[in-house]
Amino acid sequence: MNPASRLLTVVSLLSASIAAPLCAQTSAPSSATMNLPSAPSATAPQAPAPAQPTPAPAQSTPAPVQQPPPATQQPPATQPPGSNEPITTIKVQVNEVNLIFTVTDKKGRFITGLRRENFGLLDDGRPPVAVLRFTQQTNLPLRVGIMLDTSSSIRQRFQFEQDSAIEFLLQILHRNDRAFVQGFDIGSDMAQGFTNNIDLLNQGIRRLRPGGGTALYDALYKTCRDQMLTLQEEGAVRRALIVVSDGDDNYSRAQQSDAIKMCQRAETIVYTISTNVSPSKDKGDDVLRTISESTGGMAFFPIKIEDVATGFRNIQEELRSQYSLVYRPTDFKQDGSFRTIYLQALDPRYKVRASKGYFAPPAQ
Question: Could you tell me if 261 and 212 lie in one domain?
Answer without folding.
Answer: yes
